[in-house]
From TrEMBL:
Coiled coil: none annotated. The lineage of its organism: Bacteria, Pseudomonadati, Pseudomonadota, Alphaproteobacteria, Hyphomicrobiales. Pfam families: HTH_1, LysR_substrate. Belongs to the LysR transcriptional regulatory family. Residues 9-66 form the HTH lysR-type domain. This is LysR family transcriptional regulator. It comes from the Bacteria. Keywords: DNA-binding, Transcription, Transcription regulation.
Length: 307
């Protein structure tokens, strides 16, 4: 393929011409461009010599475009606007942050923190959230994703930070918990007929009711649970009094804060699995994504906060 070389005037000459034509004056153009009037005149003179036409009629302080100047002004303005728009588009794309996560993480974890994340960006970028089933999240990472939320029991991960440890505790609607609290004072009794809510979807390492019972030293058998394939729906069922849910710190905070759900005991059990935010190769080159990561890290609940 043959190379193409553009033989056009310098951008300094073109911007000087555009400014003089738009402002109808050399002095005003020099002020706008933060340069001297003689420099502006020199740029215009070089253009007129190069093009072999007169671009401006000068009568004292009055400056007007000639017919050739008007034609050239239209072309130069259009070209400069195209370059400016392309730059804005590229800067916008670089500053925006695209996050990939599950619907549960988006609804329960990211959105309650959305205002803080936007403030971390200084209002100069947008946040785009792509949701998917957890097993399908890896398949969407090549769509321009900067940051992805993942579960892992690793102690350290490259380009990632723990945004919340896995702290669990049973929660339920206030009326239901009030009815059950005295009954559940005896860890060895009463759990068999307690309505429990659980997830039916494929487990990728997060805790289930058996894990909580084991951590609390409660031996139970024959427990019946109502299952849901989405944690958001499960929590809504808990709010409606259908049963107790296993609450994750960082996901049920909003429900606990407004009293829609309450804990059956004042303790959280810590598990090995954690929710991580990981920067993709694209995100590592995106300053806005790095700011989002720092904000998430600063907002992460600790074990002390969980107790």
């Amino acid at each position: 393929m043959s190379s193409r070389r553009y033989t056009i005037p310098s951008t300094s000459s073109l911007t000087a011409f555009e400014s003089v034509a738009r402002l109808r004056g050399f002095a005003r153009a020099a002020e706008e461009l933060n340069t001297s009037q003689s420099a502006v005149s020199r740029h215009i003179g070089n253009l007129e010599t190069r093009l072999g036409v007169k671009l401006f009629d000068r009568a004292g302080k009055r400056v007007a475009l000639t017919r050739a100047g008007e034609l050239y002004f239209g072309a130069v303005t259009s070209a400069l606007e195209e370059v400016q728009n392309a730059e804005r588009s590229l800067l916008s794309e670089q500053n925006d942050v695209t996050i990939a996560c599950t619907h549960e993480v988006s609804h329960l974890f990211v959105m309650p923190r959305y205002a803080n994340l936007k403030r971390a960006l200084g209002g100069k970028a947008d946040i785009r959230i792509i949701t998917s089933e957890y097993s399908l999240v890896p398949s969407i990472l090549d769509t321009g994703v900067d940051l992805v939320f993942e579960y892992s029991d690793a102690q350290d991960r490259k380009n990632a930070t723990i945004v919340t440890p896995e702290l669990i505790t049973p929660v339920g609607a206030p009326d239901l918990v009030a009815q059950l609290r005295s009954k559940l004072q005896d860890p060895a009794a009463g759990w068999g007929d307690v309505p429990l809510l659980a997830l039916s979807k494929t487990n990728y390492g997060w805790a289930v009711w058996d894990d909580w019972f084991e951590a609390r030293g409660i031996a139970v058998r024959g427990i019946t649970v109502e299952t849901f394939d989405n944690y958001v729906y499960l929590l809504e069922a808990a709010v409606n009094g259908q049963g107790l849910a296993l609450g994750w710190r960082g996901f049920v905070d909003r429900y606990l804060a407004d009293g829609a759900l309450v804990q059956i005991e004042d303790r959280w059990i810590e598990r090995r699995t954690k929710l991580w935010a990981r920067l993709t190769p694209k995100g590592l080159e995106n300053a806005a994504a790095l700011r989002i990561m720092r904000q998430l890290q600063g907002d992460a609940p600790t074990m002390a906060q969980g107790n």
